[in-house]
Write a structure and sequence with these properties.
Region (Disordered): 280-439
Strand content: 5-15%
Family: Belongs to the UDP-glucose/GDP-mannose dehydrogenase family.
Bound molecules: 1,4-dihydronicotinamide adenine dinucleotide, uridine-5'-diphosphate-glucuronic acid
CATH architecture of the largest domain: 3-Layer(aba) Sandwich
Biased composition (Basic residues): 354-365, 390-403
Oligomer: single chain
Binding site for substrate: 164-167, 219, 264-268, 272
Keywords: NAD, Oxidoreductase
Distance between the termini: 51 Å
Structural class: alpha/beta
Number of helices: 15
Length: 439
C-alpha cells in the first residue's frame, strides 16, 4: 500500500504552495495554512496565484482527489499532521541578517496549540523548517516549544530541511531534487523524513541526513557559491569588454572543464532576486550578519558602467530601478497601487507592468529589476495573462538582453533563459541546433 501521511504546510507562498502540492501529488494528505485570507480563498476556489510549469496539473489533481486543502485556521491545519512544515518569509533585516519574526511567531502559535490539549492528532510531531534561516535557528525554535508546557506525551522534533528550488522550475526542482537535505539527530524523525522524501529521489539522487546546524549552513553555502559564480562571471565580462574578448566564448571555454561545469556562469548586470543575496548576507560565523563579498545587482560598478553606456536616459532610468530584495517583495497582503515605500521606487505589484511577475507570485518585483530573464519569455508562459507590458518595460529599461540558452544542453534541467552579455554585441546569442550555445 502507498505510504501516506498527514502534512501541514504553514505559509502558502512560493515554497509552501509548491511543496504542499508536490507532497499531495505523492499521495499525502496536505493542508496548507496561511494568514492571507484572500490567498486562501483564491486557492480554495481552485485558482493559483503563481505560474509554474506543471503546478496547475498537480494542484487540480490533488484537489479533485481531496488531498490538498487550504485554511487560515492553524488548529484545523495542524490537527492531524504528523509533519508540520514552516515555509515562512525570512526577509533580511537592516543588517542583512534574516528576520525570524514570522518563523518564531508561527512556532509560538503551534506550541500554544500543542499545549492547549485541544488537538486530536498524533503526539509525536515533526516541525520542519523549510525557510532559509541562519545557523542556530533550529535551537531557537526548539526553545519556543521548550518554554511551553506541552500536553503530556507530546514529543516534538525540530528538523531543518532547506529548500533549493528555483522560481520558474520550482515543481521540477521539487519533484526531482539534486539532493534532499535533512538536518536532525533524532533517529525517529530522520526515519520519517527519509520515508517522506524517498519517492522524490528514486532516480538515485541522495538524501543527506546531517546534524541540524550543518543542514542550515548547507543552504547558505549553496546560495553563496551560486552568487559567487555569477559575480565572478560578471567581473570576467568586464575584463572581456576591456580586452576585446567575447564573454560567451570564454564561458563556453571554461565550462567544458568538468571541475567548473556550465551552470550559473552567465554574466548579466548582477544577479537579482531576493534570494541569492540572502545567501551572501545571512551566513556568518554565528549565522548573523556575516557578509560574503559577492556582487549583488544594485550599485555595482558593472551595473553603473553598463548604465552609462546605454543610449539616451535608459541607463539612468535602469539604475533608478534598483533590484528589489526580499523585504521589498512584501509579506502577506499585496501592496497597494501607489505605495512605493517598500519597493525601492519600483512599481507596486498591481501596476500593469507588474502583471507578469505578480502572476508568478512575485508581487512587487516589477517594472524592471533586471533579474529573472525568464519573465521575458512571453505571454505563453502565463496562464490567461499578458506580460507584454512587463516585457516592454523590461526590454526598454534594462541593459541586458536575453538569450534563450540552455547552459546544460538538451534535456537538462537548467531551462531558464539567462542574461547574456550586453551592449557589446547587437546580435543575440541563439541556441544552436542541438540546443547548446551555438558558439
Ligand atoms: N521562493 C523561492 O524560490 C525560495 C524561497 N526559499 C525560502 O523559503 C521561505 C519562504 O519563501 P517564499 O515561499 O518565497 O515566501 P512567500 O513570501 O512567497 O510566502 C510566504 C507566505 O507565508 C505567509 N505567512 C506569513 N506569516 C504567516 C503565519 N504566521 N502563518 C501562516 N502563513 C504566514 C504569507 O502570507 C505568505 O503567503 C523563505 O525563507 C525563502 O528564503 C527557499 C528556496 C527557494
Ligand atoms: O534560495 C533561494 O531562494 C533560491 O535562489 C536561487 O533561485 P532563484 O532566485 O529562484 O532564481 P535563479 O534562477 O537561481 O536566479 C537568481 C538570479 O541569478 C541570475 N543569474 C542566474 C544564473 C546565471 O548564470 N546568471 C545570472 O545572472 C538570475 O538572472 C537571477 O537574477 C537558487 O538558484 C535556488 O537554488 C535557491 O533555492
Amino acid at each position: 500500500m502507498q505510504f501516506s501521511m498527514e502534512i501541514a504546510v504553514i505559509g502558502t507562498g512560493y515554497v509552501g504552495l509548491v511543496s504542499g502540492t508536490c507532497f499531495a501529488e505523492m499521495g499525502h494528505d496536505v493542508t496548507c495554512v496561511d494568514i492571507d485570507e484572500e490567498k486562501v480563498a483564491q486557492l480554495s476556489s481552485g485558482e493559483l496565484p503563481i505560474y509554474e510549469p506543471d503546478l496547475e496539473k498537480y494542484f487540480e489533481r490533488a484537489r479533485s482527489e481531496g488531498r490538498l486543502h487550504f485554511t487560515t485556521d492553524l488548529a484545523e491545519g495542524i490537527d492531524g499532521a504528523k509533519v508540520i512544515f514552516f515555509a515562512l518569509p525570512t526577509p533580511p533585516g537592516e543588517d542583512g541578517s534574516a528576520d525570524l519574526t514570522y518563523v518564531k511567531q508561527a512556532a509560538g502559535d503551534v506550541a500554544d496549540l500543542f499545549a492547549s490539549g485541544t488537538l486530536q492528532g498524533p503526539k509525536q510531531r515533526i516541525v520542519v523548517n523549510k525557510s532559509t534561516v541562519p545557523v542556530g535557528t533550529g535551537e531557537e525554535v526548539e526553545e519556543v516549544f521548550a518554554e511551553r508546557s506541552l500536553e503530556h506525551g507530546t514529543d516534538v522534533a525540530v528538523v531543518s530541511n532547506p529548500e533549493f528550488l528555483r522560481e520558474g522550475s520550482a515543481v521540477e526542482d521539487f519533484m526531482k531534487p539534486d539532493r534532499v537535505v535533512i538536518g536532525t539527530e533524532i533517529e525517529w524523525a530522520a526515519e520519517e523524513m527519509e520515508r517522506l522524501y524517498e519517492p522524490f529521489v528514486r532516480q538515485g539522487n541522495p538524501i543527506l541526513t546531517v546534524d541540524r546546524r550543518s543542514a542550515e549552513m548547507i543552504k547558505y553555502a549553496a546560495n553563496s557559491l551560486l552568487a559567487t559564480r555569477i559575480s565572478f562571471m560578471n567581473e570576467i565580462a568586464n575584463v572581456c569588454e576591456r580586452v576585446g574578448a567575447n564573454v560567451d566564448k570564454v564561458r563556453l571555454g571554461i565550462s567544458k572543464d568538468h571541475r567548473i561545469g556550465a551552470h550559473f556562469l552567465y554574466a548579466g548586470i548582477g544577479f537579482g532576486g531576493g534570494l541569492l543575496p540572502e545567501g551572501r548576507e545571512g551566513a556568518g560565523p554565528e549565522g548573523r550578519g556575516g557578509r560574503l563579498r559577492a556582487e549583488g545587482a544594485g550599485g555595482h560598478p558593472r551595473r553603473q558602467r553598463l548604465a552609462a553606456a546605454a543610449p539616451g536616459d535608459r541607463g539612468e532610468r535602469a539604475l533608478r530601478r534598483r533590484p528589489l530584495r526580499q523585504e521589498d517583495r512584501g509579506v502577506g497582503p499585496v501592496l497597494q497601487a501607489g505605495d512605493r515605500r517598500h519597493t525601492g521606487g519600483a512599481l507596486p505589484c498591481n501596476h500593469p507592468r507588474a502583471t507578469g511577475r505578480r502572476r508568478r507570485g512575485r508581487r512587487v518585483r516589477s517594472g524592471g529589476d533586471g533579474d529573472h530573464p525568464r519573465d521575458l519569455r512571453g505571454p505563453d508562459r502565463v496562464r490567461g495573462g499578458d506580460v507584454r507590458g512587463a516585457r516592454r518595460g523590461r526590454r526598454a529599461d534594462h541593459l541586458h538582453r536575453v538569450a534563450r540558452v540552455s547552459a546544460a544542453g538538451p534535456g537538462q534541467s537548467e531551462k531558464s533563459s539567462r542574461p547574456a552579455d550586453c551592449l557589446r554585441r547587437a546580435e543575440p546569442v541563439r541556441p544552436g541546433p542541438d540546443g547548446g550555445d551555438g558558439l
